[in-house]
Write a sequence for this structure.
């Protein structure tokens, strides 16, 4: 068992648990950002990580710009200073950026992190599986043309027209529904461990 992968799993799992409970979005973002950074490497060892997949399907995307957009809030939250050369650090001024931060920035951070976790391990908790479908339903314009939209529209009809609170309520309801579907829960690709796990040398039993 790779303890680095397990450490990413705990960050992503705790982030998703807090997110589903509508708890502190800053903590969600910081945990998701840390998990994303680690798991992207291991996804790349076994399959194309999410960012590579995006670039393959959208070759005109500027990779550096994509990474900045993905990580800008996480970077601002975790650093008080920035380097200005010759070993000198000055205080960062991120207030304008952070005033723009909302829980909605966590949607894509969790989507990317769990996508890479699935590539690295071949499994994903049911909560993450449903959040993936939920995010796609909210962003059907980003879905590759070869993929059908009907499945996502059926699971989350008119999701984009709902207020944010109702969108997340529907997400939680669909998670509970998915837990009651035996063929989904018994699928070997469904990881059945809890989202929040102890650190028992990575076993989490």
């Amino acid at each position: 068992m790779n303890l680095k992968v397990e450490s990413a799993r705990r960050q992503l799992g705790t982030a998703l648990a807090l997110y589903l409970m509508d708890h502190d979005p800053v903590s969600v973002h910081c945990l998701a950002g840390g998990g994303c950074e680690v798991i992207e490497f291991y996804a790349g060892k076994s399959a194309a990580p999410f960012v590579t997949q995006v670039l393959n399907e959208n070759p005109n995307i500027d990779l550096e710009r994509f990474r900045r957009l993905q990580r800008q809030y996480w970077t601002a939250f975790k650093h008080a200073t920035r380097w200005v050369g010759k070993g000198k650090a000055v205080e960062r001024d991120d207030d304008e950026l952070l005033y723009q931060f909302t829980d909605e920035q966590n949607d894509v951070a969790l989507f990317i992190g769990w996508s890479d976790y699935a590539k690295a391990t071949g499994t994903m908790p049911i909560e993450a599986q449903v959040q993936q479908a939920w995010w796609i339903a909210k962003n059907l314009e980003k879905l590759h043309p070869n993929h059908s939209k009907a499945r996502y529209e059926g699971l989350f009809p008119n999701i984009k027209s709902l207020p944010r609170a109702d969108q997340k309520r529907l997400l939680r309801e669909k998670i509970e529904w998915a837990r009651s579907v035996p063929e989904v829960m018994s699928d070997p690709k469904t990881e059945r461990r809890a989202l929040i796990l102890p650190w028992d040398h990575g076993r989490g039993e």
In short: Residues 25-46 form the longest helix (22 residues). Residues 1-80+89-122 form a domain with the Four Helix Bundle (Hemerythrin (Met), subunit A) fold (CATH 1.20.120). The mean pLDDT is 89. The longest strand covers residues 81-85.
